[in-house]
Amino acid sequence: MTFDANAYLPDDLLTRLRDRAATYDAENRFPDEDLAELRDAGYLSVLVPTDRGGAGLSLAEVSVLQQRLATAAPATALAVNMHLVWTGVAKVLQDRGIDDLAFVQTGAAAGELFAFGISEAGNDLVLFASDTEAVPQPDGGYAFTGTKIFTSLAPAWTQLGLHGLDTTSPDAPKLVYAFVSRTDAVTTRDDWNTVGMRATQSRTTELHGALAPADRVVRRVDPGPNPDPIVFGIFSVFELLLASVYTGIARRALDLAVETAHRRRSKKTGAAYSQDPDIRWRIADMALAYDALGPQLAQLCDDVDTLANHGPRWFSLLAGVKHRAVTTAKQVVDDAMLVAGGSSYGATGELGRLYRDVIAGLFHPSDPESAHATVASAWLGPIEN
After folding, report:
1. Which pLDDT score, from 0 to 100, does residue 1 have?
2. Percent residues over pLDDT 90 in the chain
3. CATH topology of 5-111 equal to that of 229-380?
4. Which CATH number does the domain 5-111 belong to among 3.40.640.10, 1.10.3980.10, 1.10.540.10, 1.10.3210.10?
5. Which CATH class is domain 115-221?
6. Handedness of CA 183, 186, 190, 193 (dihedral sign)
7. Three-state SS for 248?
8. Domain regions of the chain by residue span
9. SS3 62
10. Could you write out the DSSP letters of every residue in 273-337?
11. Over 90: is that where the pLDDT of 346 sits?
12. I need a labelling partner for 159 at 20 to 30 A (CA). Which of 100, 189, 264, 364 fits?
């Protein structure tokens, strides 16, 4: 049976999201109205199993939805992505017999909004290290002190999934993955003023002894690369859903280029630009690049859903598809700007916004350097000391 994305993101909803996107961008404002509509539509629990109040969709199906959402409102899609990552990690773990994140699933179904607090300034090891201090508490919980950056959903989240380093327990050091609530121990800076993806409001988050109770401490793992399922769960869902958002941006840019080519007419020939050989070649090149992304995403998402075993190649495959989606989307948007002409350079136009939004993809893990290093190691082996 063909998956019906329209059932979860109907055309009229997408139209409203698209209509608001320019305002959020211009005002550097969080998409409160978008989030409210998506919550009412049950979108925040699409990855939650039906017996826990969700739609029970697969990662492959949600990838399609995120592509669709990003064609209307890329920044909203990227913000919601971070919540979907945690519900996706819960699914990946549950599918593998680990139910440590059941509270994420039931919480999402009940209206909780989960944010992603992993990134730290200067921490290029990302999942494999943390500068945030995780201090064990007598009740088995942890107190977290440190600073997280790029915390999407900053104005609205109710639960922050994060990691920190425990250096004091007998088995230390251990990276601790846990969830904290929004309390006075958490400060959200109003410091988000970026080139693009402005509606994500991915502000800096300060943790001042923020407490995660024992039942919200989900994993303790050794620092550095390790095979713990939470590392695979976070990396796989994060990379695949990111790639989905940027694939959606590529699709929207391609559609806008096609619309523009039909609408614009040449003073020289009187014909529509769609009849110009150079324009036709450029749009064909855009379509050839875009057409490669969907099948790659579908296959890798399905592999995660069906517990396929790619062994040590998993991380290079995941980093690779994210890298290709972002670089392809950027090139497609660049070409769409050329098809549309000088009017696309206006700051208030949709293509101009996509041009700014797509740049953000270069900075998400895995960045180009990390992706190339991961793939090189997969094919050539590690660098010899």
Report:
1. 55
2. 93
3. no
4. 1.10.540.10
5. mainly beta
6. negative
7. helix
8. 5-111, 115-221, 229-380
9. helix
10. GGG-HHHHHHHHHHHHHHHTHHHHHHHHHHHHHTT---GGGHHHHHHHHHHHHHHHHHHHHHHHH
11. no
12. 364
Alpha-carbon span 102 to 130, nearest angstrom = 25
242-281: burial string, b at 16+ Cβ within 10 Å, e else: bbbbbbbbbbbbbebbbebbeebeeeeeeeebbebeebee
pTM of the model: 0.96
DSSP character for 185?
T
Say how far apart CA 197 and CA 102 lie, in whole Å. 31
> How many angstroms separate the first and last alpha carbons of the chain?
52
> Where do we find the tokens 């949709």?
350
* H/E element, 176: strand 174-181
pLDDT tens, 215-264? 999 999 999 988 899 999 999 999 999 999 999 999 999 999 999 999 99
Q: Give every CB contact of residue 25 below 8 A, 6+ residues apart in sequence.
A: 75, 196, 198, 199, 353
Contact of 245 with 364, CB cutoff 8 Å: no
Q: How confident is the model over 109-153, as pLDDT tens digits?
A: 999 999 999 999 999 999 999 999 999 999 999 999 999 999 999
Residue 382 is classified by DSSP as S
CATH topology of domain 229-380: Butyryl-CoA Dehydrogenase, subunit A; domain 3 (1.20.140)
Q: At what angle do helices 11-27 and 350-359 cross, to 10 degrees?
A: 80
pLDDT in tens, 264-278: 998 889 999 999 999
The DSSP result for 120-139, as a single string, is -TT-TTGGG---SEEEE-TT
Q: 343, 349 in Cβ contact below 8 A?
A: yes
**Which pair of structure tokens corresponds to residue 372?**
């190339």
